[in-house]
Specification:
about 130 residues, Alpha-Beta Plaits, alpha+beta
Length: about 130
């Protein structure tokens, strides 16, 4: 069974649009190097990654949902990575997040995975900014 991880990080006031621009850049890089992304995901044992912006009374938050065979493997592979996509991700986090190290404190209660789910890598962008 896969492991899940949720990360919630406060976006600097006024930086939400910049965050969306960074995500557009990441999607563009991922599409131009799909094999590199596949290799990263394989090294990290990553199965699913979803990003959200939560609009709250006290500001906006970047929320990450990650699913991997092993979070320990994901973290170690990410630390060792020299892939340019990770450099872009690090720059994004430094630019728009109040505390790039903040993760939040989430207790998993339930996680289900369909045995019929696809094993094909797909990237779907919901933002209409770069489509």
């Amino acid at each position: 069974m896969t492991e899940v991880f949720i990360r919630k990080q406060k976006v600097h006031s006024g930086k939400t649009e910049r965050l969306q621009e960074w995500i557009d850049d990441l999607v563009g890089e991922a599409k131009s190097d799909s094999q590199g992304v596949h290799d990263i995901w394989e090294e990290e044992s990553l199965q699913t990654m979803s990003l959200f912006i939560e609009h709250a009374e006290d500001g906006d938050y970047l929320v990450w949902y990650l699913e991997a065979d092993s979070m320990e493997q994901l973290i170690e592979a990410r630390r060792a990575s020299t892939h340019p996509l990770h450099d872009t991700e690090d720059a994004m986090m430094e630019d728009v997040l109040e505390d790039p190290e903040e993760t939040g404190d989430f207790e998993p209660l339930l996680h289900g995975v369909s045995p019929e789910r696809s094993t094909t890598f797909q990237l779907q962008q919901y933002s209409e900014r770069s489509q």
